[in-house]
Every structure is written in structure tokens, then in C-alpha cells.
């Protein structure tokens, strides 16, 4: 065993002697939801593990939202108290139990609370939250700046950290949920099923083939969160935009994985602010791609982008992937000139990007230096992130 692992094991043992060390994913994918007394998802005690610490007598909250447990804990949440090691007690259900024996099997996934806030974001759009609820308190994991005219998110905003990839037991068998209150009766899942017909109505039916099509793709990705409950929140169509499947599995995926690798293994970036969004409307032969032709809504974005900013290190970067496999690179290059100054070729921690293949998605990157950002929307977003 390495010296580092011995030190971490010693730390966990000494902490357990005076409190509780709980592995919040011990029963994953059927682990209960745990938050601290401030209704925050607790931070693991060290890198690359999922153990959290509570001092002896400290209280926290445990829940099994919309599910059933092998112990009679209150599904909507109740107060729990740390005794020692992994022994806890719950107040409402009057239970003394080894935390690591508690299972929570959710009956419906995702279990999401949607609501509009009074907070305005860029373009006077309104922030829309997706939360879990514990003990009557909303736990906001994702906030979206949503355009209710085009029915598309400008971006999803959330926080991640170096523990994001510590959930290998996550069950991804979740289907997208379409919140009717957000889309005013428009079902994006039906739009996805009928995308061939809708592109034919635009005169572009031949662009949808057996191998190339438009799909609903996550903005906030499930892999960017630690707990299964937070990951489940991402399966919401208001957290998705239409993008080409080859791009989704091409350079877009490689960019997402490169950013995760940087955050988890590239150093201590602390809590990292992430925004993932869409910009402008894609065109084919000069015609804008709206999948709802009647109301000119549900657009296919011209760009999909991903921004990270670490307040700890002040490091920030934003990537753009051209969401159109049918246009030439010269056109993508020309259109990007109005977005920001491209620094992609100077990055030494992103590799395996194929910038010669249109079907992978032409990829660009910019710093958060506002002097090098030319698009008004992106400039305002960066300004608000850096506040």
C-alpha cells in the first residue's frame, strides 16, 4: 500500500474514532440521499473516495425521495445523528442502524422538482431550477437560463469538483422526462422521434440517414455529478438541445472527457463553475433549422459550448463545437470569427480532437478574457461568471 493510501486510511480511522465516516455510495446504485445540516451535498474527506465525515453528535439529513427503503426512514427526509464509525440514529423513525446497510430504491426516475425563479439571467430570460427536495428544502443542483420564446435553454449552470467521477455504480437506465410546464405542451421526445419528418418539411430530409441524425443531448451531463440523485436530474428535456449524433459522440464527447480529466486529475481546482449551452441557430443552405416550423421554435443550435471556471485558481476556458456536419470548415471558421479569439491550438491538455472531420464537430476554444470575446451574449455570460 502506498504511503498516501496509508495516511488516508489512518485519517479515516482516527476520524471514525470520534465520529462517523460514511460512504455515501456504499449501496450505489441504491444509496440513500444524504445532505449536511446546511442542506448541502457533503464533500468527501479525500480525493478519489466517497466517504464523508460527521463528528459525534452532529446531525444531518437522510432521505429516499419517491422510493422505498429496507429500513423505515422517512422518504421525504428526516434528521439523523452520528454516533460513531458508521452507526447513526434517525429521529422521526426512531432507528439506530449501520448507515452502510441502508438501501433506497427509487420507484420513479428521474424524481425532479421544476420551478421558475424570480431571478433574471442574460437577455432577461428567467432562471429555471431543477431540484431534489429533502425535509421540505429544495436542493438546487442545476439552474437553466431558459428562452421561452424558442423553447431552448441558453445554458445550464452547475458546480462540479474532483469527485465527479467517483460513482462507477451509477445506473444510467433513465429516460428523458419532458416537463410540460416548461414547453407549454410541446413534447421534445416526440420531436426527436419525428425528426426525419420535420427535416423533410424543411426540405432537408436527405440529411437524416441511418447513421447521421439529430438527437436530444444533455447540457449538464450526468457524469459531472457525484450522487445518483443529482445525475438523475440531468435527464430532463429542458437540460437538452438537439445536436447531431456524430458530433455528440465525436469531439463534443472528447471535450467533455478532457475537462473532466483536468478537474479530477489535473490539480486542485476546488469547486468548479460549469456552464453548458447553445448559441444561435444552425443553418443549411442559408435556411435556419427550427424543428417547430409553425412557431419557429425548438431550434438546432449553431454552436454547443462548455465553460469551466475555478474560483480557487482563477482558471477558465470555454469550448465551442460547431453543431453542423454538413457545412465546410471554411464556413465554420468564418462564423466563429464573430464569437471570440480562438486559442484551441495552444492547449496542451486536450488531444485526439479531429478538426478535419465535419461529422466529429469542428472545435474551437477561448479564454475568459473579455477583450477577446466578440459575441455579446457570450461576453455577458462570462461577465456574470467572473463576478
Give a structural overview.
The chain is 20% helix and 33% strand. With 387 residues, the chain is α+β, with helices and mostly antiparallel strands. An eight-stranded antiparallel β-sheet has the order 10-11-12-13-16-21-22-23, with helices on both faces. A five-stranded antiparallel β-sheet has the order 2-4-6-7-8. A two-stranded antiparallel sheet has the order 1-3.
**Mean pLDDT score, rounded?**
92
What is the count of helical runs?
A: 9
CA radius of gyration: 22 Å
The share of residues in helices is: 10-25%
Q: What proportion of the residues form beta strands (DSSP E)?
A: 25-35%
Instruction: Tell me the structural class.
Output: alpha+beta
Sheet with most strands: strand arrangement: 10-11-12-13-16-21-22-23
Q: How would a textbook summarize the main sheet?
A: 8 strands, antiparallel
Which structural traits does this protein have?
single chain, 387 residues, alpha+beta, eight-stranded antiparallel sheet, five-stranded antiparallel sheet, 9 helices, 33% strand
Amino acid at each position: 500500500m502506498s504511503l498516501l493510501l496509508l495516511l488516508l486510511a489512518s485519517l479515516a480511522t482516527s476520524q471514525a474514532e470520534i465520529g462517523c465516516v460514511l460512504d455515501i455510495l456504499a449501496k450505489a446504485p441504491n444509496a440513500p440521499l444524504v445532505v449536511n445540516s446546511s442542506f448541502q451535498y457533503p464533500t468527501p474527506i479525500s480525493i478519489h473516495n466517497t466517504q464523508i465525515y460527521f463528528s459525534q453528535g452532529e446531525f444531518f439529513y437522510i432521505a429516499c425521495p419517491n422510493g422505498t427503503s429496507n429500513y423505515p426512514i422517512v422518504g421525504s427526509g428526516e434528521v439523523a445523528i452520528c454516533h460513531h464509525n458508521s452507526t447513526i440514529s434517525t429521529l422521526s423513525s426512531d432507528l439506530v442502524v449501520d448507515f452502510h446497510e441502508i438501501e433506497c430504491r427509487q420507484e420513479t426516475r428521474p424524481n425532479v422538482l421544476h420551478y421558475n425563479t424570480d431571478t433574471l439571467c442574460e437577455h432577461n430570460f428567467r432562471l429555471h431550477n431543477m431540484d431534489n427536495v429533502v425535509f421540505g428544502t429544495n436542493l438546487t443542483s442545476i439552474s437553466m437560463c431558459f428562452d421561452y420564446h424558442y423553447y431552448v435553454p441558453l445554458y445550464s449552470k452547475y458546480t462540479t469538483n474532483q469527485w465527479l467521477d467517483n460513482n462507477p455504480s451509477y445506473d444510467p437506465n433513465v429516460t428523458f422526462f419532458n416537463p410540460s410546464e416548461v414547453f407549454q405542451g410541446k413534447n421534445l421526445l416526440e420531436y426527436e422521434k419525428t425528426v426525419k419528418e420535420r427535416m423533410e418539411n424543411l426540405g432537408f430530409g436527405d440529411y437524416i440517414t441511418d447513421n447521421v441524425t439529430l438527437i436530444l443531448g444533455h447540457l449538464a451531463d450526468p457524469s459531472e455529478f457525484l450522487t445518483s440523485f443529482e445525475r438523475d436530474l440531468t435527464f430532463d428535456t429542458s437540460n437538452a438541445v438537439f445536436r447531431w449524433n456524430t458530433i455528440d459522440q465525436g469531439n463534443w464527447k472528447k471535450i467533455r472527457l478532457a475537462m473532466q480529466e483536468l478537474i479530477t486529475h489535473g490539480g486542485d481546482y476546488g469547486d468548479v463553475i460549469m456552464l453548458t449551452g447553445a448559441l444561435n441557430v444552425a443553418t443549411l443552405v442559408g435556411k435556419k433549422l427550427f424543428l417547430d416550423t409553425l412557431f419557429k421554435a425548438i431550434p438546432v443550435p449553431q454552436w454547443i459550448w462548455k465553460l469551466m471556471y475555478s474560483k480557487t485558481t482563477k482558471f477558465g476556458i470555454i469550448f465551442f463545437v460547431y453543431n453542423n456536419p454538413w457545412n465546410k470548415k471554411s464556413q465554420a471558421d468564418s462564423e466563429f470569427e464573430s464569437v471570440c479569439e480562438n486559442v484551441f491550438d495552444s492547449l496542451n491538455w486536450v488531444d485526439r480532437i479531429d478538426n478535419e472531420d465535419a461529422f466529429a464537430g469542428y472545435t474551437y476554444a477561448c479564454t475568459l478574457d473579455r477583450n477577446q470575446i466578440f459575441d455579446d451574449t457570450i461576453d455577458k455570460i462570462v461577465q456574470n461568471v467572473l463576478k
